[in-house]
Amino acid sequence: MKTLQRILFFTAVICLIVSCSKYEGDDMNVSLKKGKAEPTTVTVPFKADFVGNYDDVSVNATCGDFPNMMVTNTGGGTGSHLGNFTHYFEFCCDVISGYYPLGHMVAYLTAANGDVLFVSCEGQVIDGRAEDHPDYVISYFRDPFVILGGTGRFAGAKGSGMTDDYNSSLDPYSHHHWTGTITLIKGNQ
Predict the structure, then answer these.
(1) What whole-number distance in Å separates Cα of residue 148 and Cα of residue 158?
(2) CATH class of 41-185
(3) Are residues 177 and 161 in contact, defined by beta-carbon separation less than 8 angstroms?
(4) What's 153's DSSP letter?
(5) CA 170, CA 185: separation in Å to the nearest integer?
(6) Do 156 and 182 form a contact (C-beta atoms < 8 A)?
(7) Which of 61, 46, 49, 30 is nearest to 181 (CA)?
(8) 120-151 confidence digits (pLDDT tens)
């Protein structure tokens, strides 16, 4: 019986020594802790409908001489992942050809909680209306837009889509309808 106790005691001591010793090989857990995992993203549909006020359309040193003019447009609407939001667009435009932006554009959408989504678009305002537009459309612009990141839940955001925007003879506002996709980093609040 004493021999059996000694063997069990000896086995327990060996097991304790082995379990407490440091292993010098590759430890999978250490490797995982040192590596930086890529953030998880999700790509979802993006839609925004908003109305803008032309706050200023004037010759500005940033844009150069006429026919290049600075356009400032602000307003708001609703959008997926934004809820109610306001927008600010400032860009140079050739008011004769309708091409915009000419080297300068500041454009962002601000959600009600203060998170900002930076965007950019470029194209041409075309006189008249497309066949599928209402009769009161006097000029329109259907151009690509790009999502350039943002703050808060929009930090690291990417995406793109198309605008379907127009100016109306019924009011002095610009009417914007954007559809596309947005890629968000999961976990951004």
Answers:
(1) 6
(2) mainly beta
(3) no
(4) G
(5) 41
(6) no
(7) 46
(8) 999 999 999 999 999 999 999 999 999 999 99
Domain boundaries, the chain: 2-34, 41-185
What is the DSSP secondary-structure string of 128-163? Answer: S--TTS-TTEEEEE--EEEEEEESGGGTT-EEEEEE
Please tell me the total number of residues recorded for the chain in this structure: 189
Structure tokens at 88: 């600010």
Sign of CA dihedral 49, 55, 61, 63: positive
Residue whose tokens read 């327990």: 12
If DSSP codes are grouped into helix, strand and coil, which group holds residue 32? helix
Strand partners, 183: 43, 158
Digit-coded pLDDT (tens) for 67-91: 999 999 999 999 999 999 999 999 9
Global pTM value? 0.78
> Residue 145 is which amino acid?
F
Short-list 92, 114, 100, 90, CA closest to 163: 100
Please count the CA atoms within 13 angstroms of the CA of 46 that sit on its side-chain side.
23
What six digits make up the tokens of 1? 């019986």
